């Protein structure tokens, strides 16, 4: 069986470090591993509209931002099809059929949906489209016969729901769809990168993000004002590592080479942590190191982004080419789905023949 990747992001803002360690970096590695027959990365504008229906302009403007972020981290359009969800009507059609395979109570139990409803204060005014987006996400995944979905931990319930839909579909209509596997980040600290304020998650609405497109001085400013251990006041005080996001970021980003290059007094991250916990190591020194570590990773990303920013029509060409390929793949799957469901009346010569014979014999 071919190995196929499908993943994507909602275009509601620029992508940040949480996206980078949680998924983008991995995608580039997977892309370059040569292990996959096909890779699709989707800009999920239709999904973004499920909770931004009053602000289509925001979604529209962010499509190019997300595309630039993808290209800048090293997604290569020669190897990966980048496409725009709303331009593939087959995805909506699949969703309509899958809706019959999922109960309202099952959707209500989906932890991601639950959490997001709370986050957005929807209470009783949940848009139906938003409520059903896990079903639409199952369409995104199955339309491309994806075997592998590399996403962050928060998406786990979505993939589980997609797997259930696949099993249900196949048991009712016959083996048609492929059950996807989730691929989570392998570094624990990357599962969910906290915000610079120490809150559980980087989120645009909380204003605690470092963006991939942030200029060097902005990154530095954000790092130097990061949340650490509030009780670590004097340099001599022993400091805490747990919940100290400067160290969480170092867990996620720093390498042994970074120590050799920027902080040779310490052999590795453990040695730095030990000193911090003992006392005698100030936040500023650790933050300066983190800044160096991040700048080293972000510099080539920023440079590549600037190149693509000079040629926006080319970026739209890339999106259009990717969308065309995605359209054809989804169209093929939709045909198979409709055949399995027997809603293929005009293509079913057998149906027409049998019904002709039935009426002929009644004469
Ligand atoms: N829900 C994902 C996000 O919030 C985006 C997405 C839409 C997606 N469809 C998908 C991810 C299918 C993986 C597979 O970023």
Written account of the structure:
This protein is mostly helical. The chain folds into two domains: 4-192 and 312-353, Rossmann fold, CATH 3.40.50; 216-308, Tyrosyl-Transfer RNA Synthetase (Orthogonal Bundle), CATH 1.10.240.10. The chain is 57% helix and 6% strand. The strands form two sheets. A three-stranded parallel β-sheet has the order 1-2-3. A two-stranded parallel sheet has the order 4-5. Tryptophan is lined by residues 6-10, 44, 47, 137, 140-141, 149, 151, 155.
Range of strand content: 5-15%
Given helix and strand content, the structural type is mainly alpha
- Cα-atom radius of gyration: 24 Å
**Which cofactor or ligand species appear?**
tryptophan
| H and E string | EHEHHEHHHHHEHEHHHHHHHH
Task: Characterize the overall form.
Answer: elongated
CATH class of the largest domain: Alpha Beta
Tally of DSSP helical segments:
17
CATH superfamily of the largest domain: HUPs
Largest sheet: 3 strands, parallel
The protein's oligomeric status is single chain
Count of individual beta strands: 5
Mean pLDDT: 94
Q: In order across it, which strands form the biggest sheet?
A: 1-2-3
Q: Kindly, what is the distance between the CA atoms of the first and last residues, rounded to a whole number of angstroms?
A: 50 Å
Number of domains in the coordinates?
2
Give the uncertain stretches in residue-range form.
Answer: none
Give the name of the CATH architecture of the largest domain.
3-Layer(aba) Sandwich
Report the CATH topology name of the largest domain. Rossmann fold
The helix content, as a percent range, equals: 55-70%
């Amino acid at each position: 069986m071919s190995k196929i990747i499908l993943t994507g992001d909602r275009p509601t803002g620029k992508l940040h470090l949480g996206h980078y360690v949680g998924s983008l970096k991995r995608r580039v590695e997977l892309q370059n591993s040569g292990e996959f027959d096909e890779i699709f990365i989707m800009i999920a504008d239709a999904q973004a509209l499920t909770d931004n229906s009053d602000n289509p302009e925001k979604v529209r403007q962010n499509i190019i931002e997300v595309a630039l972020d993808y290209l800048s981290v090293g997604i290569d359009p020669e190897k990966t099809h980048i496409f725009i969800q709303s331009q593939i009507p087959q995805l909506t059609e699949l969703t309509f059929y899958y809706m019959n395979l999922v109960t309202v109570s099952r959707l209500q139990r989906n932890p991601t949906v639950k959490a997001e409803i709370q986050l957005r204060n929807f209470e009783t005014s949940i848009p139906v489209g938003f409520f059903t987006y896990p079903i639409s996400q199952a369409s995104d995944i199955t339309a491309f016969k994806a075997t592998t979905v590399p996403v962050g931990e928060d998406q786990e319930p979505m993939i589980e729901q997609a797997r259930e839909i696949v099993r249900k579909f196949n048991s009712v209509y016959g083996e048609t769809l492929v059950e996807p596997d989730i691929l989570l980040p392998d570094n624990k600290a990357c599962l969910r990168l906290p915000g610079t304020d120490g809150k559980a998650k980087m989120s645009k609405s909380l204003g605690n993000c470092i963006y991939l497109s942030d200029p060097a001085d902005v990154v530095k400013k954000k790092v130097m004002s990061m949340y650490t251990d509030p009780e670590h006041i004097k340099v001599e005080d022993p400091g805490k590592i747990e919940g100290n996001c400067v160290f969480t970021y170092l867990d996620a980003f720093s390498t042994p080479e970074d120590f050799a290059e920027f902080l040779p007094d310490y052999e590795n991250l453990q040695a730095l942590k030990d000193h911090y916990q003992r006392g005698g190591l100030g936040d500023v020194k650790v933050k300066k190191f983190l800044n160096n570590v991040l700048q080293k990773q972000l510099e080539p990303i920023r440079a590549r982004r600037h190149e693509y920013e000079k040629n926006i029509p080319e970026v739209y060409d890339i999106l259009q080419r990717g969308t065309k390929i995605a359209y054809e793949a989804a169209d093929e799957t939709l045909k198979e789905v409709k055949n399995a469901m027997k809603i293929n009346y005009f293509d079913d010569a057998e149906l027409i023949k049998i019904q002709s014979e039935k009426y002929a014999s009644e004469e």
